[in-house]
Amino acid sequence: MRWDQLTEDGADDGGAASAALFGAGAVTTRRFDTPEFRGITFHEVRARSIVNRVPGASRMPFEWTVNPYRGCSHACVYCFARSTHSYLDLDTGLGFDSQIVVKVNAPELLRRKLASRQWQGAHIAMGTNVDCYQRAEGRYRLMPGIISALRDRANPFSILTKGTLILRDLPLLQQAAEVTDVGISLSVGFVDEELWRTVEPGTPSPQRRLDALRTLTAGGIDCGVLMAPVIPFLGDRPDQLRATVRAIAAAGATSVTPLVLHLRPGAREWFMAWLGQHHPHLVRRYERLYAEGAYAPKWYQRRITGQVHALAAEYGIGPTQRGMPRRIPVPPEPGPAEPTQLTLL
């Protein structure tokens, strides 16, 4: 494995730089024979850097990220981060789901970075690459140290997750929210249980995520929902969109932002193989819809955005108000209508 190819600048975004994050001698491989981790291999590493600058060419509306893990046991068939495993010569299919890189010294590295005179207190986004509350977090418990470091420096941050394990850290989130801007978003693209079981097999169910949102909201932490992905021909019928927005509203979300499925290289191949196995009649339709690249056509994105925003207004999910905690930033898609349920910084 090319462990020495993980580099300090743009490490989690595929950027090139000179300083390796860690060398082969820093890797410890472990396997745990317990039901929740059966079949998963953990590569424990001592990273040299944990705060990563997003490449300038990126359309992400945030500049800094923290990603304590690589690979994700959520096993979402559409995950855009699959290609990052290729940087380590790891498989981007089943390997991405089962070969998890754990940066065991992430909290101490973050604390050191935040204490640096060069650090200006910029917003840090988490969960933008792989989920920081995937199953591995239950064992390694990196997020309490990370949130504590951000709290102690009153550094603004946001978290996007499908993991209900975030509830474990509610007291820390409450403490952080007293001193800085904290934005939490749950990712719920649909509430169709049959679809969930096939495309997101390692995640908590959509209903459990919405229950987590209720608990966070009851604890004083406002939460938005990233309604992602909206999956063409499988989760985009008007009745499916209505059911999802209705459930999001009932859970008390402060905002909802739809994001249509995008298929970047690495994810595209894995998703299309899955589609051919489970829905072969849709393969040609997908080839046509995504013929221009990773994103669905603008007309399709606008249609979904308009439908979801209309439903959000109908169910009383309004735009984020000034002074509310900042929502997790969402990668913009080319050309859709401007959102009215704001979740951007």
Explain what you see.
Strand 8, helix 5 and strand 9 form a beta-alpha-beta unit. The two termini are 37 Å apart. The chain is of the alpha/beta class. It is 31% helix and 14% strand.
Counting DSSP H or I runs of 4 or more residues, the number of helices is 11
Question: How is the main sheet built?
Answer: 7 strands, mixed
Strand tally is 11
pLDDT < 50 runs, ≥5 residues: 5-21, 320-345
Tertiary shape? globular
Determine the fraction of residues in helical runs and give it as a percent range: 25-40%
Query: End-to-end span in angstroms?
Result: 37 Å
> Beta-strand level of the residues, as a percent range?
5-15%
- The main sheet orders its strands as 3-4-7-8-9-10-11
Structural class call reads alpha/beta
Overall average pLDDT: 86
List the secondary-structure elements in sequence, H or E. Answer: EEEEEHEHEHHEHEHHEHEHHH
Determine Rg (CA atoms, Å). Answer: 19 Å
Task: Describe how the helices and strands are arranged.
Layout (H helix, E strand, L loop, with lengths): L26 E5 L9 E5 L5 E3 L10 E3 L2 E2 L23 H5 E5 L2 H10 L8 E3 L9 H5 L2 H10 L4 E5 L8 H8 L4 E6 L5 H7 L6 H13 L4 E8 L7 H13 L5 E5 L6 H12 L4 H7 L8 H17 L31
Parallel strand pairs: 2-6, 4-7, 7-8, 8-9, 9-10, 10-11
Antiparallel strand pairs: 1-2, 3-4, 5-6
Helix pairs in contact: 2-4, 4-5, 8-11
